[in-house]
Design a protein that fits this description.
Aspartate Aminotransferase, domain 1, 14% strand, binds pyridoxal-5'-phosphate
Length: 374
């Protein structure tokens, strides 16, 4: 007779069997964080926290906020302020608990088992995860040799499978490479389904955006976030821009009350002090430019050109070995080995000058220890 423990673990096994295979076969999205990390350059975040005087304003707002009351379904004040800032009508906007939440909701709105989806690679992993969770029929489109998205191949894939969703990202995470407006328009014109243009890093392009294509292409959905240039990753605030009728449909699939009152207040605060974002974008751009130049100056280091606040690079050292060596010096960057096209690459984001120096010193030390730098 099985012991109580065995019986309960058999029961758990049979319960797990009931979980949809699409979930069971997936992985939890967990970003590893070794102890004693002082220089965190692994999630493309801004190195700048909200300045103390703005945190104080937020704290004052929190004191005035009735936390016993639900927020509204959409944060209307923030939505209106954002619409005004972007020059669009508020009905074209859907705010979410980070852009990831909107991606999940969008998947829920459109995807069933076997729904065709086209994703060029390498691409921010969440899109593939959402497609897989719904059992969508995924067509991956490999990049050109320089790792940029292959527009001709994307258009061919769209013509072949007529996807419900095609996703492109510009600048792309993890490569930092961009697509031109002409290329995006070719994708939009080829697709009868939706085309998501993920512009999580669009502030770094200073004005280059697919927004002007919204009028002629009701299948265009632009996804953006307050997590990167705006430096609010800890607050969870993102948005979608699209045709008002489509936004209304997506709203039906959402969990209610996804934006809490404090997140709304922090978004409003940043819009009120938007010069802070531009100032910090300038600093991050300077930081990544200097970082890339100095990386390029190191023997055996190869860097992909980037237009975002991060870059991928490779060295002759095996990435896990390098990652461990950097972590020992308190520096965290990201291994790209989960992407088949990016074997050997690591990704690092722009830090403060001090953080960049610590990273470069640690990298130089690790390469020297491997006998790769004289
Ligand atoms: C391309 C891209 N889209 C979306 C996100 C997620 O943004 P959020 O923090 O708004 O969920 C990221 C974060 O790394 C990203 O790189």
């Amino acid at each position: 007779m099985p012991s109580a423990d065995t019986a309960s673990s058999l029961h758990v096994d049979s319960l797990i069997e009931r979980i949809r295979p699409e979930v069971r076969n997936d992985y939890a999205y967990i970003v590893s964080h070794p102890p004693n990390i002082e220089v965190k350059l692994n999630q493309n975040e801004s190195p700048y926290d909200l300045p103390a005087h703005l945190k104080q304003e937020l704290a004052d707002e929190l004191l005035r906020t009735e936390l016993n009351r639900y927020p509204s379904e959409q944060p209307y004040e923030l939505r209106d302020a954002l619409a005004d800032h972007l020059g669009v009508s508020p009905e074209m906007l859907l705010l979410g608990n980070g852009s990831n939440e909107l991606t999940y909701t969008f998947g829920l709105t459109l995807l069933e088992k076997g729904t065709p989806v086209v994703l060029p690679t390498p691409m921010f992993a969440l899109y593939e995860k959402v497609a897989n969770l719904h059992g969508a029929d995924l067509t991956s489109v490999p990049p050109r040799e320089d790792l940029s998205f292959d527009t001709d191949a994307i258009v061919r894939a769209i013509e072949q499978v007529d996807p419900a969703i095609t996703v492109v990202t510009t600048p792309n995470n993890p490569t930092g490479l961009t697509m031109s407006l002409d290329e995006i328009e070719r994708v939009l014109s080829a697709a009868s389904g939706f085309v998501v243009v993920d512009e999580a890093y669009y502030e770094f392009l200073e004005g280059k955006t697919a927004q002007s294509l919204l009028d002629d292409h009701p299948n265009l959905i632009i996804v953006r976030t307050f997590s990167k240039a705006a430096g609010l990753a800890g607050m969870r605030l993102g948005y979608m821009l699209g045709h008002p009728a489509i936004m209304q449909e997506i709203l039906k699939a959402r969990l209610p009350f996804m934006i809490d009152r404090v997140a709304e207040a922090s978004g409003l605060l940043l819009l009120k002090h938007r010069e802070l974002i531009s100032e910090r974008v300038r600093s991050m751009k300077k930081s990544i430019r200097e970082l890339v130049t100095r990386l390029r100056g190191m023997d055996g280091v190869d860097v992909v050109p980037t237009e975002a606040n991060f870059a991928i690079f490779r060295t002759p050292v095996d990435p896990p070995v390098l990652l461990d060596a950097l972590a020992e010096d308190g520096v965290l960057v990201r291994n790209m080995q989960g992407y088949p096209e990016l074997q050997g690459y690591l990704r690092v984001n722009a830090g403060t000058e001090k953080e960049n120096n610590q990273f470069l010193t640690a990298l130089n030390g690790a390469l020297t220890n491997q006998g790769l730098v004289a």
